[in-house]
């Protein structure tokens, strides 16, 4: 069902082939801080996904997109300009639909423009290789786009996680099909409105639809017409995507779950460390793939750390983005509050010691929303589910260690390997330990240092491939070798 008029903030439509597309299935968008209905959206399913694939294929075959790097660079720069113009609107819709406090929403939105401009630069400077392999023969190695790229985005940071995959895909020359979840439908429509502003963007290069059931996403992953999948989300879903993509040997980039260890040595300056470590737990209400979930603290400083960190967590002010004094917003929905609370209850029943109980907010006006106060538990058994399984909420554990080797062993005792953080004044020690930590990103005396020019991604069951940085384009391209026989040898025989 195509609709000629643009979407409004009250009813979000899908954007396919440069046109707004509705659906017979309409769902509501909710503000998780108040549970007020903020709009409706058209649910995109298999039909919408297929239309998006067709539009993307047409854009790659019938326009100059694949072959005109100047056009791609110009579009990326124009997108950056458009994001700058629409910055306030993006921040507002993000904190309204996603629940982030304004500080966190601003942080997310402000990551987008540098990413778009960085990959515009990558387009302009990308060069292949030429090898004079033997007299009379020249081999040229050039990057070619893999084809239509499917980008599947989670709800927790929908704006930057869209751009993080979209920017390198566009730089590579791919056309894209972007699927966002229903919980981000208004964000998706706002992004689409911004994409539609770019007159230089060929129709069908970017296609966006919302899909809460997952049927559309499954269609993209299974389609032979989509040779590239870039997915951010849970490890369980990532495994399912890899299995579905396997029959077609697709290029699959996966950034999956994490269980970030924060190793704190005795010589750590707690005055400097604690505010950042607190932020690692509370940013995005703990709904972040690199949330600091495991505090691994050396015995000599553990008691002081425990006391001061507990005081900070207990003082965290949960509240809506409308209250500028709020430190942490809600979880994405009430079901998540119930799920996270059960994780804490189970851990306590299994022997975890409560330092800060936290839990659902039930005693104020905030009880209408999906608010959960931070929880802090000390554990001695590293095999406990609360240590091993991703919580995706503001819940953190404390484990004590004596020796450096023990800290490394505790940090690596996980199926995950996305991020890790080391805190010490001894730089030599930190640099000695960092390569031994089984994680794609290791931060020393900081946390969450993510940028458009540095690769990010995980090891073990935290994923495959890298996004951001030069390597991000690898997920969307293949190297084509073109060999030319110039006839030099024949000429020498004359």
From TrEMBL:
A single GO molecular function term of this UniProt record: oxidoreductase activity, acting on the aldehyde or oxo group of donors, NAD or NADP as acceptor
Keywords: Oxidoreductase
Signal sequence, renumbered to the chain: none
Residue ranges occupied by any Aldehyde dehydrogenase domain in the UniProt entry: 25-482
Record has Oxidoreductase as a keyword: yes
Top-level taxon in the UniProt lineage: Bacteria
Similarity-based family: Belongs to the aldehyde dehydrogenase family.
Protein name per its UniProtKB record: Betaine-aldehyde dehydrogenase
Lineage of producing organism: Bacteria, Pseudomonadati, Pseudomonadota, Gammaproteobacteria, Pseudomonadales
